[in-house]
Amino acid sequence: MSDIKSVNGYLIKEVTPGAWWVLDAAQAQVAGPFASETSAMEVAAVLQDQPDAPARKRKNKI
After folding, report:
1. Per residue in 6-31, pLDDT tens?
2. What top-level branch of life does the organism fall under (predicted)?
3. Is residue 55 one of the residues assigned to a domain?
């Protein structure tokens, strides 16, 4: 296993031999598996986080 690399805020890790994954900060799998570390790094470089949905306004019941 090799070192974990960071690209665009995502982690690149070889989870099993020959299977590279793009992980988030909590190390949850985001994309993969990829056959090479380079492929995983290229995908991580273009990933964009989606903003959370806006919170709904609550109606005050009086």
Report:
1. 999 999 999 999 999 999 989 899 99
2. Bacteria
3. no
* Domain total in the chain: 1
* Strand runs labelled E in the chain: 5-7, 10-16, 19-23, 29-34
Q: Does residue 40 sit within a domain?
A: yes
Residue ranges making up the domain that contains 17: 5-46
pTM of the model: 0.74
Residue 39 falls within a domain, yes or no? Answer: yes
CA dihedral 6, 8, 13, 14 (to 10 degrees): -120
For the record, the structure tokens of 6 come out as 């960071």
Q: Are 34 and 43 in contact (CB under 8 A)?
A: yes
